[in-house]
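Just wondering, does anyone understand these tokens?
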Amino acid sequence: MTNRHEDLTRLLHRIQMHHTPAEVDALALRAAKEGLTHAAFLYAFVQQEDTYREQRRFERLLRESRLPREKTMAQLDMDCFGPVLAQQIERLQSGTFVPQAVNVIAIGKPGTGKSHVAAAVGHQLVRQGHTVYWTSTAALVQQLLAAKRDLRLPRELARLDRFACVILDDIGYVQHSRDEMEVMFTFLAERYERRSVILTTNLVFSEWNRIFQDPMTTMAAIDRVVHHSVILDMMGLESYRAREASAQKATTTPPAQRQPQAAAESPSIVG
């Protein structure tokens, strides 16, 4: 029995199967008890191997994605987005925008859940087997700038091209120098109509000149990002921190002293 197990272990490793002899024995015992045919036993064996490999692939993709582990759909309060925005987010979960190289731009004030939505969609994409990469815009710009300085920018862009979807968080917070602006534009231009990008920003498009400085570059960047895109307008949403403060105040303020709050106006996305 020992020699058979040793031979089986060697053979399983040789053909890159992840079963152990003990698991094979357990499957064989089940087959005997249930009266399974050889074909049914083989099916159960392959199915178990496939499940194991899928789990390993998921874990590898999640590790490589660098997604925030806590920002998933399960942790996202969809009720605070309203029906239109919630429907857009639901559709994005299918991942159909990725093979079509469609971009997603989440635009909203700080604390409205832009990053959480982007990360949650990223988690869904990983579950579907898509390659995803999460990074802050500031980190990516410095990464590309270092690659350009070392004369390996094409190689770095090719590495990023392996990811079907790159998620750039907080593009509006970065004030780029000319060199930084150029590498960011190069990155967006390289992915145009080929790969998806998810962007989160606190700036409406009319303010993107603060990012790219040059008016023509700004216009060209917006054109490439928006041409095939889904825009999540979160500008009219209240900060979740403000909502928590309001909820806490409501629980501590006597009913007679509470005042109704006027609905906030949602500014136009495109200026």
In short: Residues 260-271 have pLDDT under 50 and may be disordered. The two ends are 76 Å apart (CA to CA). The longest strand covers residues 103-108.
